[in-house]
Amino acid sequence: MTWGAIQIRRNRLLLAGIVILLPFYLFVPLALCQFFCLFLLFLLTGSRLYSEYLIRNIKIVRRDSELRVFRYEWVKVELRIENRGILPAFMVATSDSTGGLPVVKNQKIFCSLSRKSWTMLVWQGHCTERGEFSLGPVIVRGADPLGLFPFQLTAHETTRLFVYPIYRSISLKTPSGIPLGKMLSSNPLFEDITYRRSLRPYQSGDELRRINWKATARMSEANSLMVNEYEATASHPLMIFLNANRDEYPLKKHAVFIERTIEAAATLCLKAARERQDLGIIIYTGHESIRVITPAAFTLVPILERLAILDWTKPANTVSDDEGIPGSAGAMLDQGKRLSYGTRFFYAGPDLGDEAYISLNSLKRHRLSLEYLIIDDRAMPFLVPGNSPRYQMRESGREII
User: What is the pLDDT of residues 13-31, one digit of tens each?
Assistant: First the structure.
């Protein structure tokens, strides 16, 4: 029964009771009949007021406004059902919308709430598909103690659920000694002022900006200035070029290959983030503008969110760069010219072909390190023209390479 039908039923019941019982009370002189009619009128009116009171005092509070999980994991959603009034609510049924999750547990709950009390609805969903989901709204059904006036409440507050691509295992060799992350260095020129290592007494020749005045004040008994020492690191940002243009993948396997490539991009991001590397991503679909997140700290969550909602299903609009190179290779060449010195530029997608690899080698003039993570049915050599590493991606399994 819809909420509109419930409202009509509630109003008709009260109106019918008044129309039938009030004339009997006013025009039938029998005292017993008048008492019975008056009793029923008070019963109907009291039940209606009881129901309206519960409607105004039952509230739903979501514990989380956003949730994030990886694909094929279970997500736990918690709701708090509160009765903020002084009247108890009997047999309240609460259910939450699952937002399209195919498998759920304990989505509904039946309970009674005493005055000024609350209970929790905790349900679980299995996230078999990546994407962004909206959980809710919550529907609460109840009635007065006699069940004469049922009601239905809708709490429109929702929870955003991001299902990230599944994380896989990957092991890569570092080309030309370039680290995947920040590498400790003995050269003081690479000191990173965001990573303080220790304190030491002031020595002749130390810069004034290295003095830690707070530590000096706390250690005034030592009668010496205290100087910061920082971690010396060398960093090479990681930029991933994700080719999600369906027209460049084999027709029969494009869905499997693209999803696997998205998983590989997410795995690279997680690996780089664990090693404290600044990372960014370029997402090329061909049917919309290129999405770019520049390499910086704390970009992992925005990148994973972007990968979660990535839609590759639309056909591409093939364009060329200024040098006439079509498709993803032209977009990669154009975006690579804007990257900073020493960036590790990582391509993930289908094989581009020797001509594209030769054109992309021009990016090495910008001191970029080029690597290619390819998904293809054919067995390929480990190097592309120009001696850039090429890795063969597995179509399935726990390991990307």
Answer: 666 666 666 676 667 777 7
Model confidence at 260, in pLDDT bands (50, 70, 90)? very high
Would you say 151 and 175 are in contact if contact means Cβ atoms under 8 Å apart? no
Residue type, 260: R
Q: Nearest Cα to 239, choosing from 176, 281, 208, 195?
A: 281
Contacts of 169 (CB under 8 A, 6+ apart): 267, 398, 399, 400
Pick from 277, 283, 179: nearest CA to 240: 283
Residue 125: how many CA atoms within 13 Å on its side-chain side?
26
Calculate the dihedral angle through the C-alpha atoms of 271, 276, 278, 281, rounding to the nearest 10 degrees: 20
C-alpha to C-alpha distance for 54 and 142, rounded to whole angstroms = 9
| AA letter at 63 | R
* 175: alpha, beta or left? (left if phi > 0; alpha if psi -120 to 50): beta
Quote the pTM value: 0.78
Q: Do 291 and 189 meet the contact criterion of CB atoms below 8 Å apart?
A: no
Domain co-membership, 148 together with 276: no
Token output for 375: 């998904």
pLDDT tens track for 73-98: 999 999 999 999 999 999 899 999 99
Looking at the fold, whether 66 and 117 belong to one and the same domain comes out as yes
How far from 171 is each of 41, 110, 289, 346, 375, CA to CA, in Å? Answer: 78, 50, 32, 14, 16
Helix, strand, coil fractions of the chain, as percent rounded to 5: 30, 35, 35
Structure tokens at 269: 């991001």
The tokens for 297 are 């700290």
Helical segments of 309-385, H only:
327-336, 354-360
For residue 177, is it within any domain? Answer: no
Structural domain count, the chain: 3
